[in-house]
Design a protein that fits this description.
The complex is a heterotrimer of chains A (about 375), B (about 300) and C (about 375). Chain A has about 375 residues and is of the alpha/beta class. Chain A folds into 2 domains: about 140 residues, Response regulator (Rossmann fold, 3-Layer(aba) Sandwich); about 190 residues, Rossmann fold, CATH 3.40.50. Helix content of chain A is about 35%, strand content about 20%. Chain A has a 7-stranded mixed beta sheet, with helices on both faces. In chain A, strand 6, helix 6 and strand 7 form a beta-alpha-beta unit. With about 300 residues, chain B is an all-alpha fold. Chain B has a single domain, classed as Orthogonal Bundle (ABC transporter involved in vitamin B12 uptake, BtuC). Chain B contains 13 helices and 2 strands, in the order H-H-H-H-E-H-E-H-H-H-H-H-H-H-H. The radius of gyration of chain B is 20 Å and the shape is globular. The chains are: A alpha/beta (about 375), B mainly alpha (about 300), C mainly alpha (about 375). The interface between B and C is large, with 54 and 61 residues.
Chain lengths: ~375, ~300, ~375
């Protein structure tokens, strides 16, 4: 690692590059050290979504010349605008990471317009040409990792029935459910995924009830998309079901039941961003990537994963990492029988249509509304 | 059924299982609050007590390795918060509802503050007793894996019912709740009776919290309670200060909480937000049906500020 | 409960000033009303200082950052005022019914329903001039929120359902309705990962007070609080409400329609919270979604009780709590305190201020009622 060599001069150059799109020639005044602000919607020790980001922020703290300021549990109201401004005015932050989807519009857009010389990197948003040039949105194609989880789950399940505890029927969640199911059907064409929506991102009692209801239906492998997967993982494991994790590696919670999991890899991405800035490169406003770009990763396989499953999963993982595999490849029908991706059509990860997903593929038991 | 599914039977079974799994915290908090309110005080702060109990139980269980020590710690924490409530309320002209709201904030805040390092570790949990050994159906066996605290709670309800009617301290609490003048005339300190009643109430609510973190859902995190403590306080008024009715109300509430996810698992997917709100809608509906403007709530302690 | 239940004397001890009929006494005691809460605040800050000192933080740093984050700069002031503005309105939702001895804790629900109906009004009138839409939104917010709390009041008067519990249950029900509509019939198909209604349109937003970043919601709050104060203390209606709050029998003797009073006050209370919802939509979010359930309704309860249910006192108390929440970020960033420290501090302040109620009448000449 050569971050130690990022000198102040480099950072100044980087910042000039940053502001290129906004005001050419006007250099933002950098303090002796660059301050980066991280904003989390929940508690940063939630063993889930927010913790994954906090681990990424922690990776930045190790880099000399960088100062990281963090604020947790900031609601998606004008409170986040004030937090951003406070980080700018009182801490001289010049690079901001608001990490929750709901921060994007209108709050972060408003701040990016107001502070055109500073850089805003938002997690999950969909940056378009209409949005300020000093703002960007990044996200990971974690459905690739969910696809791998699905393959492993499909091989492991004895009943062929998988379960998914989800928060809300929104595109990011539906895409994970669909990728998981498509993966599972690669292993077992008859596999089904039953989904239960809890209605919100952190509802431990509902998540536990959903887990129990799913297992009562004969489901023996579960995964989830909620902020903190701990409740699902532990309750499923207690009832003897297998689990695939989400956000972070939860294998320590249930070493025997943990098959694999879809994890974020912000520890790799955030230092990369800073490196790009220091090297004078511009971070693309719309930044996406999956296994290949090392934005997401797959947890190491648990002991219950068969050799056959490992081989198949590793094979697909290698193809995804090489960038020559398409998950959403027609023909794909939804669970009402309608064709959603026609035969011959390949929807690659970058395809904007996938960001609007509003269907559940064949094999998913559940409805989007 | 060969594939291990029990189809639509999931719903009644889940409601039944949910009634057992989800009801225990409601039961402990409402029984505790029942004692406090019968003495003429209302403690809205039991939400904070519940959360604080959940956190301290998890923490002590993690540190000591004994979940039962965690349960005890939760009870003691709850009793201390109860003592704080009673202490402030014994000052002249202090409003008990407001103190309750204050302690709700304080308890929740303190639990979140101290509980940050406890979210990730795994603490030893309370064991379950297998009452479903007679059944071949795994779903039934799972629903009948019952924690002994549920049984204690169920036993506590008739004991309290009996104690309020026949024991000396039951009579004292009721006297303090009905007429503080009468209690004073009998030579008892109303404040002392209420202090004890609030501490016992806090003790039980704390134990209710320990069930959340040490049995079901069975871990400590900040979303754990989602208003169960305050709902349980509402249940007491709904249950007319009768411990037996508290038991039935808690069971009904637990069952209703399981309804939403269970319906989705059998394919009833539309309007899941409304099904998830079923416990609240149900409570309101029953209150509208059973309350009457013509008479005072039967069983309402006359000294209770909320009913005066 | 019977209509007797409307006799609240003990229910809201904190409305002591409202129950005192003497006009002069109230003014004579004003020094006490500043001195005692001030001392309680200092006491609470001291205890919180000791609390953070136990965790190895310097209390003096704490006070400095709290001051800096809340009131230290012009930016901090604006931050504080922005956070205070919804609290003034939601506090009224608890303070107004308290005059009648009712404890309403469902301001959050009225805020959500107010936001939903204000948004519906704006979406129904798309194309109309902004002023028309804004007025319609105010009406929508006030009527939606007002009817929601009036439901609690009505259930209490006509069915004997305890208003504290019904208003709380209605919060959960309101949130479910909001989520149901926002993810269902009212969903804007373009709102992808944050299900929301369609936007009301940038032109229809009410914007900021010129020269500041504080939105007009603050002015709405100030007007509402002052109007409420005049209504309660300087009108026949308010007099009747306070009489009814003090003694239901007396109210009946002077021929007051208690039912009408309760329904009207509940409507106004819910209307204030509904207005807060409208402001959140028209000044901040531009649409309705689950973000609106940010807890302003619950913090409003705290504000109302700390202000001893006095509509005018709500203004400084809301600013104080706005300041605490504004400084919370700085405490996290500079001192490494967790976000929950704001909750702990609020709890301690609340406990101290309530306990200090016992001091009234012992410092000054105002004799508190027993």
């Amino acid at each position: 690692m050569d971050f130690g060599r990022i000198s102040r001069r480099h950072l100044l150059q980087g910042s000039a590059a940053l502001s290129l799109g906004a005001a050419v020639g006007v250099r933002p005044a950098f303090a002796a050290e660059t301050t980066i602000g991280f904003i989390y919607v929940g508690s940063r020790d939630d063993y889930g979504y927010n913790q994954a980001h906090a681990q990424g922020a922690a990776a930045l703290k190790k880099i000399p010349g960088l100062k990281v300021v963090e604020e947790e549990k900031v609601p998606e109201t004008d409170a986040v605008e004030k937090t951003i401004e406070s980080m700018i005015n009182l801490d001289s932050a010049t690079l901001l990471f608001p990490t929750s989807f709901g921060y994007y519009n209108p709050h972060m857009i408003k701040m990016a317009t107001k502070y055109p010389k500073l850089r805003f990197e938002h997690c999950g948003g969909l940056w378009t040409d209409k949005d300020p040039k000093n703002a960007g949105s990044y996200f990971g194609y974690i459905d690739e990792a969910q696809y791998i989880s699905g393959i492993v789950a499909g091989y492991t399940s004895k009943s062929g029935k998988l379960g998914f505890v989800a928060a809300k029927p929104i595109p990011q969640v539906l895409r994970n459910i669909n990728a998981f199911t498509l993966g599972a059907r690669l292993a077992n064409p008859k596999a089904t995924t039953q989904v239960i929506f809890t209605g919100d991102w952190s509802m431990p009692v509902k998540e536990a009830e959903a887990t129990n209801s799913l297992i009562d239906q004969g489901i023996d492998v579960l995964t989830c998309h909620v902020d903190g997967p701990k409740t699902m993982v532990e309750n499923a494991a207690r009832r003897g079901a297998m689990v695939c994790g989400y956000h972070c590696n939860q294998s320590a919670l249930a070493p025997k039941a943990y098959l694999t999991g879809a994890e974020w890899n912000w520890e790799a991405l955030y230092p990369k961003f800073v490196k790009m800035i220091a090297a004078g490169q511009e971070i693309p406003n719309f930044y996406r990537g999956g296994l290949k770009e090392e934005i997401v990763k797959v947890s190491p396989y648990g002991e219950a994963v068969s050799a056959e499953a490992r081989k198949h999963a590793d094979d697909i993982k290698a193809k995804l990492t090489a960038g020559n595999y398409v998950i959403f490849k027609g023909p794909i029908t939804d669970n009402k029988g309608k064709t959603v991706i026609a035969a011959g059509t390949e929807r690659g990860q970058q395809d904007p249509e996938l960001e609007k997903m509003d269907y559940l593929v064949e094999g998913v038991i559940g409805a989007t509304s | 059924m060969a594939d291990g599914s029990i189809g639509l039977w999931t719903v009644p079974l889940a409601v039944f299982g949910g009634a057992i799994r989800v009801s225990t915290p409601f039961l402990f908090v409402s029984l505790g609050e029942c004692i406090t309110e019968r003495s003429g005080r209302i403690n809205l702060g039991l939400e904070g007590t519940l959360v604080m109990g959940a956190m301290s139980a998890y923490g002590i269980s993690y540190l000591s390795g004994s979940p039962w020590l965690g349960v005890l710690a939760a009870g003691v924490t709850g009793a201390l918060l109860g003592a704080l409530h009673a202490g402030i309320c014994s000052l002249p002209r202090v409003n008990d509802i407001a103190v309750g709201i204050a302690l709700m904030l304080f308890g929740t805040g303190l639990a979140f503050y101290l509980g940050k390092p406890l979210i990730e570790p795994t603490a030893p949990r309370l064991p379950a007793i297998d009452f479903g050994w007679w059944s071949d159906i795994p779903q039934v066996r799972a629903a009948l894996r019952i924690n002994v605290m549920f049984l204690i709670g169920v036993a506590l309800a008739p004991i309290l019912y009996w104690a309020f009617r026949t024991t000396r301290w039951g009579l004292l609490i009721r006297t303090a709740g009905e007429s503080s003048d009468a209690a004073r005339a009998m030579g008892h300190s109303v404040l002392l009776i209420r202090l004890r009643a609030t501490m016992v109430g806090g003790f039980l609510a704390g134990i209710g919290g320990s069930f959340l973190s040490l049995f079901y859902p069975g871990s400590w995190n900040e979303g754990l309670s989602s208003g169960q403590g305050i709902t349980a306080v509402a249940l007491v008024i709904f249950a007319r200060w009768d411990p037996m009715l508290c038991l039935w109300a808690s069971l009904a509430f637990g069952g209703a909480a399981a309804l939403g996810p269970a319906l989705q698992s059998v394919g009833v997917t539309s309007g899941y937000h409304l099904f998830n709100a079923a416990p609240y809608i149900l409570t309101l509906a029953i209150m509208i049906i059973t309350c009457s403007p013509k008479r005072t709530l039967t069983g309402a302690p006359a000294e209770l500020s909320i009913t005066r | 409960m019977t209509t007797e239940a409307a006799d609240p004397v003990g229910a809201v001890g904190a409305v002591a000033p409202a129950a005192e009929p003497g006009f002069l006494q109230r003014h004579g005691a004003s020094i006490e009303y500043i001195l005692i809460p001030g001392a309680a605040l200092v006491g609470a800050l001291a205890v919180f200082g000791i609390f953070v000192a136990l965790f190895g933080k310097n209390p003096l740093d704490l006070y400095f950052y709290m001051y800096q984050g809340a009131f230290g700069t012009w930016f901090s002031w604006q931050n504080t005022l922005t956070r205070a503005s919804p609290l003034i309105l939601t506090a009224l939702c608890t303070a107004l019914p308290a005059q009648l001895g009712m404890v309403i804790i469902g301001g959050e629900g009225a805020l959500l329903i107010g936001a939903l109906s204000a948004t519906s009004a704006a979406l129904a009138l798309q194309g109309a001039p902004p002023l028309v839409i804004q007025i319609a939104m105010v009406c929508g917010g006030v009527i939606g929120g007002g009817l929601w709390i009036m439901l609690s009041g009505g259930l209490r008067q006509y069915r004997g359902v305890n208003e504290t519990i019904s208003s709380l249950l209605l919060v959960y029900i309101a949130l479910a309705i909001l989520n149901h509509l926002v993810e269902g019939v009212m969903r804007d198909p373009a709102s992808l990962n944050k299900p929301s209604t369609r936007e009301i349109g940038a032109a229809n937003m009410i914007g900021s007070i010129p020269g500041t970043d504080v939105h007009w919601g603050l002015v709405f709050g100030l007007i509402a609080a002052i109007t409420a104060y005049i209504l309660i203390y300087h009108t026949v209606f308010g007099f009747a409400a306070r009489v009814a709050g003090g003694n239901i029998r007396a109210a009946k003797i002077v021929g007051l329609g208690v039912n009408k009073l309760i329904l009207t006050i509940c409507f106004l209370a819910g209307g204030a919270a509904g207005l807060a919802g409208m402001v959140e939509v028209a000044a901040v979010q531009g649409r309705t979604n689950a973000n609106l359930a940010a807890g302003y309704g619950f913090t409003g309860i705290l504000v109302a009780f700390l202000a001893r249910q006095n509509p005018l006192a709500i203004i400084p108390v809301a600013i104080l709590l706005g300041g605490i929440s504004a400084s919370g970020g700085l405490l996290q960033r500079r001192l490494g305190l967790p976000d929950a420290s704001v909750l702990v501090l609020q709890g301690i302040i609340f406990v101290f201020v309530l306990a200090s109620d016992a001091l009234y009448g012992r410092v000054g000449f105002l004799k508190g009622k027993s």
